[in-house]
Amino acid sequence: MAITSFPDNIDKIIIKLLDKNLRYRCLILQSHDPSILNKISNNFEVLANHLEHPYQILSCLRLFDHVGAHSCSEIIKQIETIAESSLLLLEGPLHFLNFWTKTSQSKFWGYLSTFTQGPGIIISDLVGNDTFQEDF
User: Fold this and answer.
1) Kind of pairing between the strands at 87-91 and 55-59
2) Between helices 10-17 and 34-51, what is the axis angle to 10°?
3) Residue 129: CB atoms within 10 Å
4) Most buried by CB count within 10 Å: which residue of 76, 118, 123, 133?
């Protein structure tokens, strides 16, 4: 979902799209404006409390080490561990994907596109990031 301004009803939109009765549990929110990504992060605690779920924020800045980006498998494992019991915000932009092969990027998006467990995953990213895959 591309966001051009921060809607007042974003909480209602997210709650509807992450309803516990829906099969798929991952939502990507994208914007051209980095300040909107900050607003998503700043309002995440309120949203998680409204959904009555424990929550965690995983900043994409933490997905790098002294060499480069963590591997796809490492990041998926981290996401699985958190998201099985907590609402997760994967706080972008997702620059770590630029360090991976196209195969690893496809594996990452394929995993997220079929995620069906836990309270859900929200991903914030910039529109136009070359790493977004159409299969999502």
Assistant:
1) parallel
2) 60
3) 14
4) 123
Average pLDDT, the chain: 83
The structure tokens 């092969």 sit at 101
The per-residue pLDDT for range 64-123, each reduced to its tens digit, is 888 889 999 999 999 999 999 999 999 988 888 888 999 999 999 999 998 888 888 999
CA–CA separation, 132 and 65 (whole Å): 22
Q: Model-level pTM?
A: 0.81
pLDDT for residue 108: 94
| Residue from 26, 127, 130 nearest 79 by CA | 26
Is the separation of the CB atoms in 112 and 27 below 8 Å? Answer: no
How far is Cα 36 from Cα 65, in angstroms, rounded to an integer?
A: 27
Check residue 77 and give its pLDDT.
95
Q: What angle do CA 41, 70, 35 make, to 5 degrees?
A: 20
How far is Cα 89 from Cα 35, in angstroms, rounded to an integer? 16
Give the number of C-alpha atoms closer than 13 A to the C-alpha of residue 100, restricted to the C-beta side.
Answer: 24
